[in-house]
Specification:
alpha/beta; 2 domains; multifunctional enzyme; glycoprotein; glycosyltransferase; nine-stranded mixed β-sheet; membrane
Length: 756
Amino acid sequence: MLGICRGRRKFLAASLTVLFVPAITWIYLFAGSFEDGKPVSLSPLESQPHSPRYTASSQRERESLEVRMREVEEENRVLRKQLSLAQSRGPAHRRGNHSKTYSMEEGTGDSESLRAGIVAGNSSECGQQPAVEKCETIHVAIVCAGYNASRDVVTLVKSVLFHRRNPLHFHLIADAIAKQILATLFQTWMVPAVRIDFYDADELKSEVSWIPNKHYSGIYGLMKLVLTKTLPSNLERVIVLDTDITFATDIAELWAVFHKFKGQQVLGLVENQSDWYLGNLWKNHRPWPALGRGYNTGVILLLLDKLRKMKWEQMWRLTAERELMSMLSTSLADQDIFNAVIKQNPFLVYQLPCFWNVQLSDHTRSEQCYRDVSDLKVIHWNSPKKLRVKNKHVEFFRNLYLTFLEYDGNLLRRELFGCPSEADVNSENLQKQLSELDEDDLCYEFRRERFTVHRTHLYFLHYEYEPASDNTDVTLVAQLSMDRLQMLEAICKHWEGPISLALYLSDAEAQQFLRYAQGSEVLMSRHNVGYHIVYKEGQFYPVNLLRNVAMKHISTPYMFLSDIDFLPMYGLYEYLRKSVIQLDLANTKKALIVPAFETLRYRLSFPKSKAELLSMLDMGTLFTFRYHVWTKGHAPTNFAKWRTATTPYRVEWEADFEPYVVVRKDCPEYDRRFVGFGWNKVAHIMELDAQEYEFTVLPNAYMIHMPHAPSFDITKFRSNKQYRICLKTLKEEFQQDMSRHYGFAALKYLTAENNS
């Protein structure tokens, strides 16, 4: 170690010589160019013998300086050559021929050294040594269960990805809910050099369910105890993180600390920064046993291979059984048991500097962990209050957290150049599909959108659904963007059944939606609404992708394919469930049509019956939907017949027909080539007809379109000629695809289009 420091001192001295000797020489020359405090020109004219300022002595001085400068330049050239040779030999001399990227902070093994380290900072170069290979994979384990924790994990992962320069392997111990959400998220995120493995948390419940736990994390808060048994046996080390962690530095720096472990040290932990384990928070406060202030388990470095050899499973179980005889339950979940084990076996722990886990709960000593923003490494929101915690610098911490919360996750799809990555079939297929497109095609952007993979976060809010016993349940399916949020409460009041919504939002908008929903009594009282966030990417609104996402994640056998601007009639949910039975939808290919109307009034007294609706229709308060701009879209519904109909009646498909229908959940998806405005529903209805669905109009059902400002996409359609040309091209290609797929029967679509 001493030899390394000496070598670095020589290296530093040589570097300083190269930098400062020329600088000092030029300063001397510049100072010499002043005479009596006035600048003296060094131009060739004034250096001639006939110049009045020219003297023999000044000429000699100048020549002497020029000689000295040439000598200094030659010395610098030699030094630079020596430095370059030393740099090229350095990595090979230290550890093979691999380039290093990070150095490890000087770790501490006791609290006195820790306090000294906080004061001194990380400036000791001699205390650093290369520890992490450029392409070394860093392993991270996280226990995650439920909808809220899944959202928290995303923010944590964003903060890690933002700083990282190494491949990452996340080991997620997740329940069924979190696995569904996060598997879809990472699959659609497609971040290079990131691998995800899931471990079933529900299977681990029996390992820890015998431990009574009062902590709000519940049974999942105990699962870090069984990681040696859960994670692969060939995994030697792992960083374990709580979901309420935010990284302010590269996680490789923390990974490097493993190289500081000595002897039997197998746990890397930061001292607890509250007085909890001192037992003086209130009268009769009796915490679990701990060494001094104890340790916080929000950030743990685990040497798995050594822990297994030490029989960690047996160690913590015996300790927990012994302490539970008197303590009866844990108050801080796994943290209590970790501390009890360390109390008996202090040699197991390597104490990390406290900036690796700055704990922002009330009444902590977290402010002693940093002097400046640059000292911060990991922030831990370990109070139930989370962002509302009391801390002198909480505003800064909150802003840092919100930065990652609202950061565009698409920007984190960065390649790690120089590091080999595992073959990703989805990514390879995507690249192949994109390579087959002609970038000179005027409709290239339209075609490309069909293959764009949008990052998707399913069930952004808590979701509960109890299946109907009669198997007739219907889910309302719709999609929306930020400018239609105001429709959500009204729809929930009109439709009491399950709802599946796909929301097209940016990361920042998703947080605005979350705050809006959490502040709404109507939305918070409804747990049978699935909110699925599809994150913005590209220049078009992917309307049919959104519909497909909402359709795919319904829990009922039937679905009502609606749009967010429509309010269903009161009682439509129950009426459709009865119609499903009456028309035997389970055993027939039917699409039940709900007639669509519209109003131009923003304030509408919503009709409570068909009779009231017909009266408003006659008075001009309501109109059949889009009768004045797109009559063909709903004309086949035959509104004249509907006025007097008392039983369902069948209608035939016609060109440009686009009704709103109730179908079985196994109906075909929407065609993704249609984005923005135009033909997105028409194409779907055409495919239903090609698959021989029977269109049946419901006589006592209706929905009303509420007015709103024109969307950005319809504005583009109306103002951009190329947009309209590309839409026409896509229509023709779709019809050709239909003919190839459905054969002779699909020829009618070409004929109908030509006649319309």
